[in-house]
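Project channel, design review

CF: Before we commit to the Flavobacterium fluvii constructs, I'd like one complete example in the thread so the newer folks can see what an input/output pair looks like. Taking Transcriptional regulator, PadR family.
RD: sounds good, go ahead.
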Amino acid sequence: MNIENTKAQMRKGVLEFCILSVLKDKEAYTSEILDTLKNAKLLVVEGTVYPLLTRLKNDGLLNYRWEESLSGPPRKYYGLTEIGQTFLNELNGTWTELSDAVNLITKQN
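CF: and here is what came back for Transcriptional regulator, PadR family:
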């Protein structure tokens, strides 16, 4: 079994939750989202994030707006919709339950 593949799958499993969490308090453009994920040691590439942002938007969880940039092309800023905030709240509860369960199991001798 390839451990790197397993680790990548674990990261992918929480990526949607992490992106929604990044946007819970403020809008951000893709580079900011990627930087936040990378700073948290959640290694992702643009090719993974762009399709996920589009899917989250199409699912009604995110909206976006364009803003002119002084240093290049306009930037697309993403933010949570009301449905997205409700969805994130549900994921937070599920994450707590899952995390508690995994910690309980993995700490047993």
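RD: helpful, thanks. Residues 3-106 form a domain with the Arc Repressor Mutant, subunit A fold (CATH 1.10.10.10).
CF: The chain has a mean pLDDT of 92.
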